[in-house]
Amino acid sequence: MANAAILPADPAIALQRARQGKSYWRRVWERLRDDKVTLAVIGVLVMLLIMVVFAPWFTVHDPYTGSVLRRLKPVGTPGHWLGTDEVGRDLWSRMVYGGRLSLLAGVVPVFLALLIGGFLGVLAGYAGGLLNSAVMRLTDVLYAFPSILLAIAITGILGAGLQNTILALTISFIPPVIRISESVTTQVRHLDFVEAARASGARPLTIMRYHILNNVLGPILVYATSLISICIILAAGLSFLGLGVTPPSAEWGLMLNNLRQALWVSPLVAALPGAMIFITSMCFNLMSDGLRQAMDVRL
Amino acid sequence: MAADSRVDVGDKPRRPAGGADACVSGAPSRPLLAVESLTKHFPLKGGLLNRTTAVVQAVDRVSFDVRTGETLGIVGESGCGKSTTARLLMHLIAPDSGSIVFDGLVVGAAEGGLGLRDLHRQMQMVFQDSFASLNPRLPVAMSIAFGPFVHGLAKPAALKRASELLEAVGLDPLLYANRYPHELSGGQRQRINIARALALEPRIVILDEAVSALDKSVEAQVLNLLVDLKAQLDLTYVFISHDLNVVRYISDRVMVMYLGKVLELGPVDRLYRDPQHPYTQALLSAMPSMDPRRRTVQAPLSGDPPNPISPPSGCRFRTRCPYAEGVCATMPPALLSPPDDKLRAVACHMLVPGSGHSRAAVEINA
Amino acid sequence: MWAYTLRRLLYAVPVLLGVSMLVFALIHLAPGDVVDILVPPEVPKEIADSLRRRFRLDEPVYMQYLAWLSRLLVGDFGISFFTNRPVAEELFGALGNTLVLALPAAVLGFLLGVLLGALAAYNHNTWLDKLFSATAIVGVSLPHYWVGIVLVAIFAVVLNILPAQGMGFEGIPTSWNHVKHLILPVVTLSLIPMGVISRLVRANVLEILSQEFVGTLHAKGLLNRRVLYHTLKNAAPSALALMGLQFGYLLGGSILVETVFNWPGSGGLMNLAIFRRDVPVLSATIVVLATIFVVINILVDVLQALIDPRMRR
User: Fold this and answer.
1) Which residues neighbour A71 within 8 Å (Cβ) at sequence distance 6 or greater?
2) Residue among C274, A155, C180 nearest C266 (CA)
3) Mean pLDDT of A84-93
4) Which chain A residues touch B180 with a CB distance below 8 Å?
C-alpha cells in the first residue's frame, strides 16, 4: 500500500490517517470526486433545478398568456428566442416553468416508491417465510402490467391531474423497488456477520438498523436513481396522452402533445419539449451510472 | 490394530440398539454442556406442489458432553455435520429433536429453562470466514461493541470495552479501533472475531473452523492466542476443524463425526495413539507422515463420502469400511464405552461382544 | 418438466385474479358511476336509482365484482358506452392491428439488437464499442414517442416520403403503399427492444468470448466464423427470452406510439376510451392486455426451462 506520492511527509499525520479507517461511503465519495463526467452531469442537473425553481428570474414572459397573433413563431424570433407555441405563449417560459411539473412528476414518485417499496422489500427480505411470500405475491400482481399500462389504468380510470399522476407512477415503481430491496436484503441476511449479530442476542429491528440497512442502502439507492430517468419519460408520456398534467399548465409532455399539429408548420418548435425530456432523462441516467461505478468499490 | 482389541463390556447393561446413543460421562461434576440426541434434517423440496422429496440427514441423534474448562475438538470430513452441530448448539437453527442442557438448565424450555438471550450471553461462536463475519460498513470497534450494546450497555461504555478486548487479543486499540474490515489482514480480522465473541463474557466459545482459512504462521499465532485466552478467562472451547494436527494441538478430548453421527470420542492422546474405530484409524493414517522412514504407502480410505441425503442403513460408515459385515447393514451401532476406559466411546459392532460381528468377542452369558 | 409448466400456470391464476380485482377496484373508486355517465344530471333521482337497480349497482361490491368477473370469463366484455357495440368486437380488431405493428417491431428490434450487440462485443475496447455504449445510454434516455414525432418531422413533413399517420389498410399489408404506413411506427416501436437486447447480447457475448473454451477453439485453428457460430448459439437463449418479454411489453405498452401515429390498435382504442370516459372498453382492454402479458411471460419461462434445465426450480 506504500506509495511515495500518497504518504504525507509528516509522520504524525500518517499515523492519524492509519488510525482513522476509511469508511465505505467516504471511499464512494472520493471516487465520485474523481469522476469528471458524473460531476459535470450533476452540475447540469443542479443548474436545471435552480432555473426551474427560480423560474421568474430566468424568464421574461408569462407562460400562461399568449396572443394568437404571435402563434408559432420560429426559433430565433427577437423577443422569443425559442419561438412561441400554438396559442402564442413564449416557448422558453413554458419550458422553464414546465420543468417544475415535469421534474416534480419525475422525481417524487420514485422517492415515494423508494420509501414504501424499500421498507416493504427489506422487511420481506429479512423476515422470509410467510411475510416474504405475501409481499412478493402482491408484487407479482402489479408486475402483471407493463408499467405504462398500470399508470394508464390508474389515471385513465381515476382521472387526470398531477396528484393522480404521482399516485399512478408511485404504484408503478413500487414493485421494482420491492424486488431489488428484497433480493439484496436476502443476500445480506445470510452473511456470517448477520448470523453473528443474531448470535449476540440482538432483536430483529436492531439488527436491521445496524447491520442490514447500511449494507443494502447503496444498491437500492443506485437502482432508484436509475428509475428517475424512466419516470420522467413516463410522466411526460402520461401528459402526452392527456392523462397527466392538465392544460393550461406547462409541462413538457403536454407541450409535446399540443404542438403536434404544429409539426407541419414549425417542426423545430414542435420537437423542442421532447428534447428537454431527453436531455433531463439522459442526465439522470449518466448520474445513476456514475453513482453505480463509484459504489462498485472493490473491497 | 483395533481389530485385535476385544472390548469386554462385562456387567455394564447393554443399551438397546438403534436407540439413543449413550451419553459419555465419567467426570464426577456436572458437564457444562450436555447434548442429548440432537437431530436436524433438512428437507429438499421439489415436485409439483413443492413437496418434500428428500431429506438431508445433517445431524442424526448426536449426544455428547462438554466439561467445564476443557477443549472439545470435533473432527470429520466435509458434510459430516460439524458446522450444523455448531449452529444447533448456538441455536442459530432450531433442532428437530433432542435437547441441549447448559449448566443444568434446558435450553429453550418454556419454564425453568434457559432463554435464548441468556444462552447467548454464555455461549458465543467464531466463524470460519473472517471477512464475511464482520460488517464491512462498521468500524471493527463497533462490531465488537455491538453485543454488549445490545444487552444494555451504553455506547461509550461498550466501545471502551471493545478497546480493552482489542488489547486482549493483541491489537493496539488506538491503531485498530476505527479501521474497517477490508483494511485488515486475515489474522487480524480473526482476532477481531475472537474479541467480538468474548465481548459478552461467555463461558463457552465455539470455534467453527476458526483458523482453517489462515496462513500457517498466522494460524499458529491465533492458536496460541486462543490457548492464552482460555487460561486467562477460564473458558471452555468447542473446537471444530478438519485439520487433525491443529485439533491434536489444542484439544483435551476429541469427537469424530461422520455423516451426522458420532463415531468415536475420547481423550486426545489416547485417541490419536490408539484409535478404535476403523474410520478414525483411516483418518489418522491418512495424515501424511512426517517421518521419511515411514512413508504412507496407500490411501486407507477409498471412495467419496456417500450422500447425506440417503445414508447407508445401519452403520453409516460400512460402505467404506474394510471390516463391514451383514450386521453392520441391519443395525446401527450404539456409542458405547469400553468397561476399562470410561473416558472413551466408540460406535462400532466389532467392539461390542455378542453384536454378531465376526470380530467381536462372543458374549459371556450366551 | 410438465410439473414446472403446471406450477407456472397454476401460479398465474391468483395473479390474474389479482389483476381483475385491481381493475375492478379502480373502476369502483372512480368518481361517479355508470349512471352518471349515461344520463344527464337533470334526471330525477327516482329514475336514476331505478337505473342503478337495473345495472345492479346497489348490490354489495363483491357481488358486482363476481358478476363482472363471470361475464369476463365467458368472453362477455360488455357494451361500449359510446358506440353501443360489444366491446369484444372492437377490442379484438384493435388487438390485431397492434399485432401488425408489434411483430415486425419485435423481429426488427431483435435482429438489430443481436447484430449491434455482437459487433460491439467483438470490437471490445475499440472506438466502435465506446460508440455503442454512448448510443446505448442515449437510447435508454430517449422518449420513444418523441423519436416518433421527430421521425415524422423528418420523413413526412420535411422529406415527404412517408405518411405521417394512420394505418392505411385493414388486416395485413399487401402492397408497398400499405408497408409505407408501417415503416415509421415499426421503427419507433423497435427502438426500445433493440436497445435492451443489444445490451444483453453484448454482455453475454463478451462473457462467452472471455471463457476458456473459446481460446481452445482458436488454438485448434477454427475460423472466426465457427467461433461466431458457437458464441451466438450460447447467447441465443437469453436473447430470445428477452425478446419474448419485450414482445409482451410491445403489445401492452404500444399506446404512446399508436397515439403519435394515430394507429387504430389497442393503444389507440384505449386512448379513445379514455377521452370518451368509456369505462367498459377501457377496463376490458386493460384486463386483456395484462392477461396477454402474463401469458407471454409464462410461455417465455416454459420455453426457457425447456432449453435450459437449470431454470426449472
Assistant:
1) A84, A85, A86, A87, A88
2) C274
3) 81
4) 21-24
CB A136 within 8 A of CB A124: yes
A83: left (phi over 0), alpha (psi -120 to 50) or beta: left
Q: Of C4, C92, C12, give the one whose Cα is nearest residue C294.
A: C12
Cell numbers at residue A57, please?
Answer: 428570474
pTM for this entry:
0.82
CA distance A101 to A95: 10
Confidence of residue A111 (pLDDT cuts 50, 70, 90): very high
> Do the beta carbons of residue B358 and residue B328 sit within 8 Å?
no
Task: Tell me whether residues C138 and A282 touch, CB distance under 8 A.
Answer: yes
Structural element, H or E, at residue B238: strand B236-241
Chain B: touching chains (3 or more CB pairs < 8 Å) = A, C
Q: What is the pLDDT of residues C222-264, one digit of tens each?
A: 556 677 777 777 777 888 888 888 898 888 888 999 988 888 8
Check B132 against A192: CB less than 8 A apart: yes
Cell of A120: 416493504
Q: Which amino acid is at A98?
A: G
Of A21, A200, A299, the CB nearest to B120: A200
Closest CA of chain C from A80, distance in Å: 22
* DSSP sequence for A133-184: HHHHHHHHHHHTS-HHHHHHHHHHHH--SHHHHHHHHHHHHHHHHHHHHHHH
C 260-279 residues inside an 8 A Cβ radius of A = 260, 270-271, 273-275, 279
* Terminal Cα-to-Cα distance of chain A (whole angstroms): 14
Selected residues 50-109 of chain B with any CB under 8 Å from a CB in chain C: 50
Write out the H or E segment, with its range, that includes residue B206: strand B204-208
Residue C222 makes CB contacts below 8 A (sequence gap 6+) with: none
Q: Which chain A residue has the Cα nearest residue B182?
A: A299
Q: Tell me, what's the ipTM?
A: 0.83
Contacting residues of B for A197, CB less than 8 Å apart: 135, 146
Which residues in chain A have Cβ-Cβ distances shorter than 8 Å to B175? 18-19
Q: Of A18, A200, A299, which is closest to B182 when you measure between CB atoms?
A: A299
Mutual orientation of helices C2-29 and A147-158 as an angle, nearest 10°? 30
- Which helix (H) or strand (E) segment holds residue B99: the answer is strand B97-102
